[in-house]
Amino acid sequence: MTLDRRILIASGLALTAGPSVARARSLPPAPGDMVLGAATAPVQFVVYASPSCGHCAHWWTTELPAIRKTFIDTGKVRLVFREFLTPPNEFAAAGFLLARRVPGKYFEVLTTVFQKRETIFESGRLWEGLQAIAQQYGLTEAQFTTAMNDTKALDGVNTRFRRAIGEDQVEVTPTFFVNGAPYEGEADLAALSKIFALAAKG
């Protein structure tokens, strides 16, 4: 299962095992952050996820909609999304490149990639699957190919990936932080409601 050879591969970025460090510090804004919700929200919910991660796709499509409706869209929680690469890295990177190429629709495109991930993987036609999503959002074949060969954008993805590993010590996806503290429990609406309430109280 491979992408068409034309796509740029995020190479040389193998995950490195590092110590799992529990800490409760703020996570300041970082270049490339994608944000949903009010800047004044009392709770910061940082999510690291990858388009090629099945667990991420499941959480994003089944749990996030209710969380977004209840907390993010109501100004109670601000979601900060940070990109991470999981095998096959080239698919994950391509998904991010595509999402950033469609103006103003990053989260919509990313959601579509998550929704169609399993079908695309089962088909083994990763390039064509992403290209179909690009067309769904109005990109021509030439525009899609240009997005996939945007070396500056790919450098940004790789830089964010290295920072996630080196600075935030992210090892798996999805990974969550609530007001700077790593959260490793259930990430459904019921569990996060309690965590968000505690975080809002400081």
TrEMBL record:
Domain of life, per lineage: Bacteria
Q: Which residues form the signal peptide?
A: none
Q: Which residues form the Thioredoxin-like fold domain?
A: 31-195
Record-given protein name = Thioredoxin-like fold domain-containing protein
Q: Which Pfam family is one of this chain's hits?
A: Thioredoxin_4
Record-linked InterPro entries: Thioredoxin-like_fold (IPR012336), Thioredoxin-like_sf (IPR036249)
